[in-house]
Amino acid sequence: MPPSTPPPAVQAWRDHDTEARTLPGMSLGRIPLAADPGAAERLWGMGARRAELDSPVDLATSGRAAARAAIDRLCLVRDLTARAVRVDWDLHLPAGRDDETWKVLSHLQPPRTVTGLTDPETALHAWRTRHYLCKLIWRQGPGFLQIRDRRWGDLRRFTADDPRYPEAVARLDRGAHHTDVATDILEEFAAEHLVLRADDLVWWLPYRVSRWLQEAMAV
């Protein structure tokens, strides 16, 4: 990885409450992280229940290095959201984006600030007041992959039994070059807003659920 795009680092605490995290023993300090699938799990294992990203998720800057850095941080936000860890982060979008852009990311913990939207304050208010866990999830059972999407206000459920789909998700999970995934599958994912394109990289948006936070039928 080029020096200009270091892996993410976070400030972490053992409690999400603003006052509680100031108590002795609550701070875990600054934690450098490798850009790999185990980063969120390691933070959870250390006792982190609130984390602050070291720099914004910048989707407004062009170039492969900037895209790689943004996706590395989005992976961390996504995987910490899946564990109900409070994430403090900031989002930079290309200028002039509309509501559809933030709704694509609305399953993630809401950011502190967002730039690039035509009406960022309204978007942030909606994001914060409408966010809940399991808004966009996927799970894999014996011989099938299922996605449940509630970002648009209703439940949209997709089930695939083609073995190519789990393989594609595995490639896209940390961000992959768009040519590394079968074109027909990538087009299906893009049509349902299940992937995010940054430069020539494509990233998988849903987070994986290992156990239901509510009864399965409610989710």
Short description:
It contains six helices and 14 strands.
Features:
219 residues, four-stranded mixed beta sheet, alpha/beta, 2 domains, 6 helices
Number of helices: 6
Average residue pLDDT: 90
User: Tell me about the biggest sheet?
Assistant: 4 strands, mixed
The total domain count is 2
How much beta, percentage-wise?
25-35%
Spell out the helices and strands N to C.
EEHEEHEEHEHEEEHEHEEE
N-to-C CA distance: 38 Å
Structural class: alpha/beta
Shape: globular
Low-confidence stretches: none
Radius of gyration based on Cα positions: 17 Å
Let me know the number of strands.
Answer: 14
Write a structural description.
The chain has 219 residues and is of the alpha/beta class. It folds into two domains: 9-130, no CATH class; 136-208, no CATH class. 28% of the residues lie in helices and 28% in strands. The chain has six helices and 14 strands. It has helices spanning 39-46, 64-82, 99-104, 120-130, 164-172, 183-191, and strands at 9-13, 27-32, 50-53, 57-58, 86-88, 90-97, 113-117, 136-141, 144-149, 156-160, 176-177, 195-198, 201-204, 207-208. The protein has a four-stranded mixed β-sheet, with helices on one face. The radius of gyration is 17 Å and the shape is globular. The protein starts with 8 loop residues before the first strand and ends in an 11-residue tail after the last strand. The model has no long low-confidence stretch (mean pLDDT 90).
